Amino acid sequence: MTPIMITLLVIAGIVVLIAIGYMNHVVENTKLEKARAQIELNDRLRRCGEITETFPGQLMTPALKLLLTRLELNVNQRLLTLNKSSAALKSRIKELEALIGQGESIPVNNPPSPIQTEAKAKDVRFLLEALHGQVTRAAQDGFLPTNEAKHWIREIRHILVLLHIEFFNHLGQHALQQEQPGQARLAFERGVQYLRKQPEPATYSQQLQVLENQLARANSMVLSNSQPVADEVNELTEGLKVVDADAEWKKKAIYD
């Protein structure tokens, strides 16, 4: 064997080793990307399921239920491409497709869950934040058209306003039942202020009128009370501060 042939064999061996190393690297990267994709999609699926199952019934509409079902279907279909033999995924996809086929006649079984405490209001606000993230990501993935995504971002903001209205009203009514007109006045006043600062306050003119009437009633009770009412800087006041704070996600827009 000549020196040239030996050299060529050595070079060929090196090339083969490099190719094997490169292929192993590609295979490992592919496995890692698949694992990352599965983790991300399972997390999105979990969040979507949490919203669907725990969202208060008084705020859940057929249109919103249909959107959540479509989002869940999209995630399940993407998971199926990573695990094509999953019988559970195939079965769930069929169930979701059947539900979507009903359109806005889709059943909405979420029970009403009154927003009576700060903790409850925060929980629902977190669900809305999660929904905002789901819609945004679906738009980025190309699953939701831009116009539809923008529509749902507006709807999420609308639901957030309804959440505040219910919270302030419940706080005020509870305070009146407890014969605490000072706390009731505070709750109704914050509700009125919140609605007045909305970009389109006319949309909530009816709810604003109700809160203004309640505020006038509570204020009259305070003034007619012979005992002066101390300023209640307590858990109610602190709670209102927390819930009334506008979250950053509320201000975001898709494809401005």
Automatic annotation (TrEMBL):
Q: What is this protein called?
A: Uncharacterized protein
Keyword Transmembrane helix recorded: yes
Keywords tagged on the record: Membrane, Transmembrane, Transmembrane helix
The portions of this protein that span the membrane are 6-27
Q: Which domain of life is it from?
A: Bacteria
